[in-house]
From TrEMBL:
Region Disordered, annotated ranges: 1-27
Gene3D superfamilies noted in UniProt: MFS general substrate transporter like domains
InterPro entries for this protein: H+-coupled_symporters (IPR051084), MFS (IPR011701), MFS_dom (IPR020846), MFS_sugar_transport-like (IPR005828), MFS_trans_sf (IPR036259), Sugar_transporter_CS (IPR005829)
Gene Ontology CC annotation, any one: plasma membrane
Gene Ontology MF annotations: symporter activity
UniProt protein name: Putative proline/betaine transporter
Basic and acidic residues bias locations: 1-10
Species in which this protein is naturally found: Arthrobacter echini
Amino acid sequence: MPQRDDERASVPKGASPTSLDEMSAPVTVDRSTRRRVVAASFIGNFVEWFDYAVYGYLAVTIAAVFFPESDPQTGLLLTFALFAISFLVRPIGGFVWGHIGDKVGRRTALSLSILIMSGATFCIALIPSYAIIGIWAPILLLLLRVVQGFSASGEYAGASAFLVEYAPEKKRGLYAAVVPASTAAGLLLGSLIAGLLTTLLDDDAMSSWGWRLPFLLAAPMGLIGRYIRTKLEDTPVFRELAAEDETIKAPVASLFRLHWRLLVRAGGAVLLNAVGFYVILSYMPTYLSAELGLGATESFLATTIALITYIGFIFLTGALSDRYGRKKVLISASVTFILLTVPAFALLGTGNFLIIVLVQILLGAMLTLNDGTLPCFLAEMFPTRVRYTGFAVSFNLANAIFGGTAPFVATFLIATSGSDLAPAWYLVAAAVVSLIAVALSRETSAEPLRHE
């Protein structure tokens, strides 16, 4: 990423703590520090979404291992139900990690969350199958998914706040785009490994041990991420607040008492991200293979190609939001989803591989208009004293209710309606809500970060 050693936030000399309300930290951040900040923010989300990708891409195999007595569609529904239930704990995690991040420090919260998350992911690989321990197999899977959901709930918000508070003022959107790029990279590696395993191994090998291999990778990746994070200082603006004893004792209470309107608008803005991300990037391989009859290898290949282009588009939209504003880019995302989602899903039903790849690239590009802009938009929306909490609570509430349930809802809507276009209409509804929420929010791209 482009760096400039001389970029800093400007605060008049001798400014008092109360005059810092509309100012960023007067601290020069060198190029080496910013590189390490980017790496630290990248790897945590990478590990988190690598796990979610593997779980989603290997859902059919996981269903056979943990729910072998169910028919294939019921087993798939139960597997996605566990995926959704694990998200219910995310709002609780948002409150906890938000409190730690705003009271103790961003670095502390991020260092702890990646350790817990990678440990739980590693342990999933060690769970015996239903054939060995019966009902305890899905129970243990659920418990570990809940631990994952709790730990991961502070990751996206914390990494976004970390980057925005370290970034040059006019490049906050570009820097914050590292967070969704890291999620896509995690999904990409998950897709590649899942595709490789399904190509090289037969069904028996996949069910007995093959599906476990990707989860084992979480431990070394998590330890590397924690090591990088512990070598960094906290963000300049947070250190400034802490030095002046200006942090809030109860960030959650302050958020709901003073900033509840921001919280409501933020939750609405997140809705398209929550539904779109999980339907387009996580659920799509299962949709293509289980619902449209495309081969598993072709499904993984199409999603992999789309993810590669998605990562490139993410940084473009982050830069566009710096130039034209967060609201314009986010509104464009909602409008394109409202107009193009149903026709795009109709084209997926043609079964033509080239058309499927092109449609997935289009859907991914549409999603980046939202995903590449949203982290900076949410971080700028909340003041420094409650930034981590506001971001974590709004993001995780929306993802708990609508994101984690998206694969289950999509599968359920198809089963009950009989229409393969049902997930597309669900996406359109989410886009309408996000459009309204963003339209009611103010533009923050040209403003300094607020402290209160």
